[in-house]
């Protein structure tokens, strides 16, 4: 039994991402999802929904009581868009950047 991340569903720009792993063994399997090497509290099912924007490297650990294996990893990273703004600031004018007036 070696778990693997089979399904990746969703659009990272508009919603959550759902990772899924098929059950490949008979018997009782316990699951634990990890983000950047740290166990995610409550993430103990074969599927895990990544909250929007929660970048990191995700891995699934599966244990059937005899074997304990780690899945392949999934690197969830958002592309950052950079918008060029006017570079000339004139005296007496008000500009808003990140909801703060400068």
Structure description:
The protein has 102 residues and is an all-beta fold. It has a single domain (7-101), classed as Immunoglobulins (Immunoglobulin-like, Sandwich). 0% of the residues lie in helices and 36% in strands. The chain contains no helices and ten strands. The strands form three sheets. Strands 3, 4, 6, 7 and 8 form a five-stranded antiparallel beta sheet that branches. The protein has a three-stranded antiparallel beta sheet with strand order 1-2-5, with no helix packed on it. The protein has a two-stranded antiparallel ribbon with strand order 9-10. Strand 6 and strand 7 form a beta hairpin. It is rod-shaped. The N and C termini lie far apart (58 Å). The relative contact order is 0.23. The mean pLDDT is 76.
Give descriptors for this structure.
three-stranded antiparallel β-sheet, 102 residues, five-stranded antiparallel β-sheet, mainly beta, 0% helix, Immunoglobulin-like, single chain
Number of domains: 1
CATH superfamily: Immunoglobulins
CATH class: Mainly Beta
The description of the largest β-sheet is: 5 strands, antiparallel
Helix content: under 10%
In CATH, the architecture is: Sandwich
Q: List SSEs in N-to-C order.
A: EEEEEEEEEE
Radius of gyration: 21 Å
Derived from helix and strand composition plus strand pairing, the structural class reads mainly beta
The low-confidence runs, each spanning 5 or more residues with pLDDT under 50, are none
Beta-strand percentage range = 35-45%
The DSSP helix count reads 0
Q: Give the total of beta strands.
A: 10
Task: Examine the coordinates and then state which fold CATH places here, giving the name of the CATH topology.
Answer: Immunoglobulin-like
N-C termini distance: 58 Å
**Average pLDDT rating:** 76
Shape: rod-shaped
């Amino acid at each position: 039994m070696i778990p693997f991340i089979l399904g990746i569903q969703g659009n990272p720009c508009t919603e959550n991402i759902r990772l899924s792993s098929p059950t490949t063994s008979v018997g009782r399997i316990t699951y634990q999802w990890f983000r950047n090497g740290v166990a995610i509290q409550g993430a103990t099912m074969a599927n895990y929904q990544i909250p929007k924007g929660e970048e990191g490297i995700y891995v699934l650990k599966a244990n059937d009581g005899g074997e304990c294996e780690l899945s392949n990893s999934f690197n969830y990273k958002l592309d950052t868009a950079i918008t060029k703004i006017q570079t000339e600031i004139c005296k007496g004018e008000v500009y808003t950047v990140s909801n703060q007036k400068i």
